[in-house]
Amino acid sequence: MTAHTPPTPPFRDPRLPFAKRIDDLLSRLTAEEKVSFLHQFVPAVERLGIGAFRTGQEALHGVAWMGPATVFPQAVGLGATWDTDLVRRVGEAVSREVRAMRALDDRVGLNVWSPTVNLLRHPLWGRNEEGYSEDPRLTSAIATAYTHGLRGDHPTYWRTAPVLKHWLAHNNETGRDVTSSSVRPRVLHEYDLRAFRAAVEAGAVAGVMPAYNLVNGRPNHVSPYLREQLRAWTEEELLVCSDAGAPSNLVDSEHYFDTHEEATAAALVAGVDSFTDHGTDASPIVARVEGALRQGLLTEADIDAAVRRQLSVRFRLGEFDPQDDPHAATGEFDTPAHRSLAREAAERAIVLLRNDGVLPLADGTRIAVVGLLADECKLDWYSGTLLHRSTPLEGLYERFGAERVEFAEGVDRVLVRTSAGTFLKVPHAPAATDEVRGAGGALDPALLAGRTDLPPLTTDATGTEFALVDWGEGVLTLRAPDGRYLSVAEDGYLRASADQPGGWVVQETFRLEPRADADGNTHGSGHLLRHLGTGRPVCVAADGVRVAGPDEEDAETVALVLLESGEDAVARAAAGAEVVVVVAGNDPHIHGRETEDRTTLRLPAHQERLLAAARAANPRTVLALVSAYPYAIEADGPAAVLWTAHGGQAAGTALARVLAGDVCPGGRLPQTWYADDADLPDLLDYDVIGSRQTYLYYEGTPLFPFGHGLSYASFSYADLAVRTGEGGVRVSCTVTNTGDMTADEVVQLYTRAVAPSVTRPRRELLGHRRVALAPGASAALSFDVPLSAFAFWDVSQGRWRLESGPYDVLVGASSEDVRLRTTVALEGEAAAPRPVRERGLDAADFDEQSGVEIVDRTKRAGDAVTPVGGGAGELLYRACDFGTDGGTTGVTVTASGAGTVRLSLDGGPVLAELTVAATAGPYDHVTVGAALTAEGVRDLRVGLRGPLRLAHVGFSG
C-alpha cells in the first residue's frame, strides 16, 4: 500500500496566473492570519509553509541601514546627471546588492522604499537630498529609470519591488505630521500628481508610501486620491505602505479621529495595505483592526483587498516559486562593476556653475585644498556603511601627487576651560573591541557613538585641543585629535566616541550659550556648553564629564580658548599655492535633514569666513560646494564654482578628475538656485502657480537657473524642425561639439503657451537628452511629444484641456539658455465658459485666490475653502455663464462654520451677502440662499469673512 501524497495546492502551482493563486491562498488563510498580515512585520504561516515577510527596505542611493554596501550619490545628485540610462544602471546595481545581502541576512527586505519622488519645490526643505528635481517631468523620468533598474527586466519576477515616497505634496519637516498642504486642483494635477503618475504608468512600481502631512486638511493616509488617482492609473495591484508611526498620528498628533479603531479602519478603506507602526510589535495594529471589525467599521472584504495587494507583491518577487526565481542566486555585491558605476555616477553628477578660466587645472599645479569638507566623505540618514571612500583631498593627492597638494581643514583649534581653571580632557582610549568592528575590521559608526566602554571626558591642567566647527546658528561639533567626535551615550557621559555626527537624534552637536547670573544678566557670567541631543548643559562630576541634571544646578560654566583660527590656517595654505580649492557645504545630519528644515540659503558664517580668507590670500580660488541642497553665494564670488551632492564612496576621486579635466563636467541643476532668502515663498505655501514658484513660474532673476551647467567644451545648435502630426509633435535639431575635448551636452526641450487664457508656466520642460560628443562630432536628436503634454487642467471643466493657439518651442542648454526657438500652432479646444447654472461651482475650483486655504469637505472626500486664520479671503472664478433669457435669479452656498459670503460680478459692488450661522462642526454643512440677478458670461468674485468653510455655490434661474 503506497502512501498518499497530498496534491499541490493551487497557490503553489506556477502554471496558474498569479490572480488565481492569490485567490486560493486567500481562501486558505484564517481571519486571524489575514489580520496579522496588515502589519509591516508579517508572521510566518507554518501550516501552509509560508515564511515571514517584511515590507520596507531603504534603498535610496544604495542599500541602507544593513551594513556595508556600495554607496552611490544622493538622489538629488542622480537627478543632476539628467541621465536616465545611468540611473537605471544604478537601480540595477542596488537591487542586485539587495538580493545578495538578502541571501546572507533575511532582515534585508525585497520590498524597497525608494525612490523619493517628492518635488524639490522649496530649497529649504530638510529632505532636499532625497528628491530628484523641482520639475515633475524630470523627476518622473529619473524615478522611472531607477524603478526599472530596481524591478529588473524579467517579464514575470521582480528583483525588488519599489515603493514611491511620499504621497503627496510633501515638502516640509516643520510640523510635518500636523501641517496641511493647500493644493489647488491645477497644482495637484499639473505638478504633484504628475511626478508619481508617469512612474506608475511605466509599470515598474509596486506601490507608494503616503506622507506624514495633510493635503487640503485631510491626512495623506486617508487620502481619496489613493483610490481616485493612483489606482486608476494601472491595472496592477499597488501596495500602499504607511510611513512609520503615521497610523497612530491620525489620533495622537493630528486628532483627526477620536479612536485608533476608527483611524485604522479609515486608512484601510482609503487604501493603506501595510501599517508601519510600533516597530516590530504588531499587537497594537492587530488589536485596532480586530476592534474595528467588531464595531462594524471594517468588513472582511476590506481586509482581503489589502492582503491581496500585499500577496501580489510577494508573488511577483518569486517567493512562492523559488525554483523559477531568476534572481534567487544573485550574488553581485561590491563588484568592480559597481565600484566603477559609483565613480561614473559621481562624475556625471558634478555641475560646473561658473568658470572664469581657472578650470581645468593643469598637470603640476600647486594646489591648496581647504575647507571643512575637504577631507570628508559624508553619509546621510539613508546611506549604507561605506566599503570604500574617497575625499576631495585624497582624490587630489591621487591625481596631482601629495607633494603638489597642501591641506588646511580650516577648523578652529580650541581648549575648553572650566570655572575651576582646568580644561576638558579626552583620556586615553582602549582599542576598539570586536563588538564595534564591522566587515574587514572597519569601525561601525552606529556603535561607536553609543559606546560606554570608553572612559568619559575628565579635566586637568593641560586639557585636550579640540577641532571646533560652527555649522551655523551656533550649532557646534567638537572633535578630538584622533578624529573622534564628542558624543553623549545613554548614560549621559561625554566621550570622544563618534566617527561622524549621525543617528536619528544627533548626539554630537552642542551650543555655546551665555549663562545668566542670579539676576538674569549674562554679561561676564561665562557660557554653558549645551548638548543638543539631550537639551542639557555639560557639567563636571567626580567620575567624569556628563550632562547636567534636570534642574541644571550642576551645569558647568566654560570658556573657549582659541589656539588657532581656521581662517589663519586657510590663508597660510592659500598664499603658497597657484590655485585654492575651497570645499564647503553641509553635514547631512546637521541643519537640513529628515525632521529639520533649513532656515536660510546662506552658507554657515564659519564657511563664509574660510572662503573669504582663501580669496583674500589667492584670487585664483575655486569653490567646490558639496551639499544636499542649493546655497545662495555671492554673484561676483570665486573664479570658479562647482556643485555636487554628497557623491557616495567615489565622491573625492570624481571631483578631482573633473577639476583636472580628465572628465568634462556635464551635470545640470535639477532645481533653481535663488540669490537670496527673500526670493523664496513661505515653506508651507504649496501653490506654485499663485506664488510663482520654481522655474516654471518664478519671475525674478535666479542665481543659477534650472537646467544650468557649464562645460569645458562648447556646443552649437542648429537645424531646428518641428512637425505636427496625429496626436503629437516631433521636434528635431542638431548639436555639435565645437570644443577641443570630448564632453557631454544636456539638450533640453521646453515650451511656453504664447497667449494662454489662464496662467501657464514661463517655461515647461518637455524632454531632455544627455549626449556625449567627441570634438567636432554632431548628433541629430529628435523628441516625440504627445499633444497631451501641452495641456493644462481646466478647473472650469474639471479635466485636461489642450488649448488652441501658438506655443513656443525652445531648445537649449538650460531653462534660460535657449539656443533655438520657433512657434507652432496647435489645434485643441477653445475655452468654454463655466456652466454654473447647470453645475454650480465647487469652491476649490477657483482661478485665483488670496487669503484662503483648501480644507476637507468631509473626512472621506471633497474639498472646501476657508479664510486663513478665520479672517478674510477672496476667490475669483472667471467666465461664469449665468445664461440668457433672464439668466440667474438666485444663489445658494453650502458651507459649515460661521461667517458671511459676498458675491460680486466683474469687480463691481456686492450683489448678494449670505450669512452662515454657526454649525455643529466643520463637516455639518448647511445650505443658505439669496436672490442674485446675473446674465451672460461674467467673472464672479466671492469674498469670505469669518471661520466658515465654503464647499459649493449653486445658482438657479
TrEMBL record:
Residues 839-956 form the CBM6 domain. SMART domains: CBD_IV, Fn3_like. Keywords: Hydrolase, Signal. Pfam families: CBM_6, Fn3-like, Glyco_hydro_3, Glyco_hydro_3_C. GO terms for molecular function: hydrolase activity. Belongs to the glycosyl hydrolase 3 family. This is Sugar hydrolase.
